[in-house]
Structures are given as C-alpha cells and as structure tokens.
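step=encode ok
step=design start
structure_in=
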C-alpha cells in the first residue's frame, strides 16, 4: 500500500459529500453517539460499491443505462426525502434536547446512513476506476490487494466521518439553545440535501 493511495483516499473522504453531510447533521441534531452511529452507517453503505467494483459489477452500471438510471433516481428521491425530513424535523435527524440514543433510534440512524451511500451509483463507478490504479499489473494476488485497500479506505472513512460528527456534537449546545440558529440549521441541511440530489440528477455515467 502506497502513500499515494492514503493521501488520495483522504482527499476523497474529507471532501464534503452526502456521508459527511449526514454525519454532521446527526452530530448537531442528536449528539456524539448519533454521529458515531451515522459514521458507521455511511461506512457500511460503501461496502456494496466496493464489492461491485472488485467483482466487476460496476461495469454494468457504466454500460447499462437502465440500471444506472434506476439507482440514480432512487438516490435523488432519497436525498429529497432527507431534505424534507430535515426541514420538518422528523426521522433520524430530529433534534433531541439530550444525547440519549436508544436501540431503535440507533438503528434508524444506521439504516439512513447506509441508504444514503448505497443509492448513489456514482460510488460504484468511482471505486471501479479508483482501486485498480493502486494495484500493479504483475500483482500476484490482485483480489487480496484490492480487498486490503478497500478495508483501509473504509477505516479512513469511518475515522474521518467520526471526526466530523464529534466536532458537530461539540457545538450542538450552542445550536439547540437558539431557536433561530436551529431553524437556520434545518434549512441549511435541507438545502444541502436538495443540492446534492440535483447534482446526482444531472450526473452522467
């Protein structure tokens, strides 16, 4: 595993996207525990994309217009649903005064984190193009090497997302104690989810 892989992975992971946005929203609305659970869910959500890339299934999304469009519009619909939930203060992003996270709440946050990444077909195509760049042509066990790179990428994703979420949880007290700031926060996250949905809607294979 090269330094180039680690640096490139960190740049990709740190860049704001749906997973980062969801983890920040969970930290601000429900606290530190929720942010860690959200980070875990978002990390799990990239597993199918990595598996698809390693097994070559991502090529299907790249070549099949129907498969790509189906996943793309499901992803758009889900991001719009997340925007609506944030704006209406419903679902896993409902603001809680305390930081207690029950089993059902943790499950809801995890499922939303998983879905928010699973329903983005661009991730499969990204990993399909990304992972092979760091596997030599004369590699004795290319599959094992790609699996190792995938595990490292997931670990980095989880750690970076937890960092984002814990930072958000640190400042949540200053947010939830001010109704005007809380309303601004809901609108900002809703607008961000809509923007990401629009970006996905306009994306091409």
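sequence_out=
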């Amino acid at each position: 595993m090269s330094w180039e892989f680690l640096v490139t992975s960190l740049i990709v992971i740190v860049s704001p996207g749906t997973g980062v946005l969801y983890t920040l929203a969970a930290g601000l609305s429900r606290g530190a525990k929720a942010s860690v659970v959200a980070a875990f869910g978002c990390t799990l959500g990239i597993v199918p994309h990595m598996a698809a890339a390693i097994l070559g299934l991502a090529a299907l999304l790249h070549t099949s217009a129907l498969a790509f469009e189906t996943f793309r519009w499901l992803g758009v619909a889900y991001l719009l649903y997340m925007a609506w939930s944030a704006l209406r203060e419903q679902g896993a992003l409902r603001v809680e005064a305390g930081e207690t996270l029950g089993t059902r709440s943790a499950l809801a946050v995890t499922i939303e984190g998983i879905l928010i990444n699973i329903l983005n077909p661009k991730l499969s195509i990204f990993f399909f193009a990304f992972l092979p760049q760091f596997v030599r042509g004369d590699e004795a066990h290319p599959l094992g090497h790609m699996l190792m790179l995938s595990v490292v990428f997931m670990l980095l994703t989880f750690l970076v997302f937890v960092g984002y979420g814990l930072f958000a949880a640190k400042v949540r007290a200053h947010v939830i104690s001010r109704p005007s700031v809380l309303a601004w926060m809901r609108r900002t996250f809703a607008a961000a989810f809509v923007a990401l949905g629009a970006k996905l809607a306009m994306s091409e294979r």
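step=design ok
step=annotate ok -> The mean pLDDT is 78.
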